[in-house]
Amino acid sequence: MLGKLLQSMPQAGYPADWSRALELLLVDPDRGMNLRNGILHGLAGTPPKHHVALILQAALYLLSHAHGQCMAPDPTA
To answer: In whole angstroms, what separates CA 64 from the centre of its chain?
Structure first.
């Protein structure tokens, strides 16, 4: 379910690259880290600090985008 939600992010106005990054970080067990199962569901012990940092970064990005604080794309890129 979370995977489908992440895949639909571009239709909701989120950049497609962030949708894919979050999919790899949270739900893709084959190519990504799949942190949702291991950490967010409590299946692992204390997570490494770098995993916590990645999850916090993702959450802060989603919050900033939802509140209109995202940066506009560079028109020259």
So the answer is: 13
With contact defined as beta carbons under 8 Å apart, do 29 and 37 qualify? yes
DSSP assignment letter at 45: S
One digit per residue, pLDDT tens: the chain, 77 residues?
Answer: 889 999 999 998 888 999 999 999 999 989 999 888 878 777 778 889 999 899 999 999 989 888 876 555 556 65
Output the furthest CA–CA distance in the chain (Å, rounded).
45
Task: Give this prediction's pTM.
Answer: 0.76
Which residue type, as a one-letter code, is found at position 34? Answer: N
- Amino acid identity of residue 73, one-letter, is P
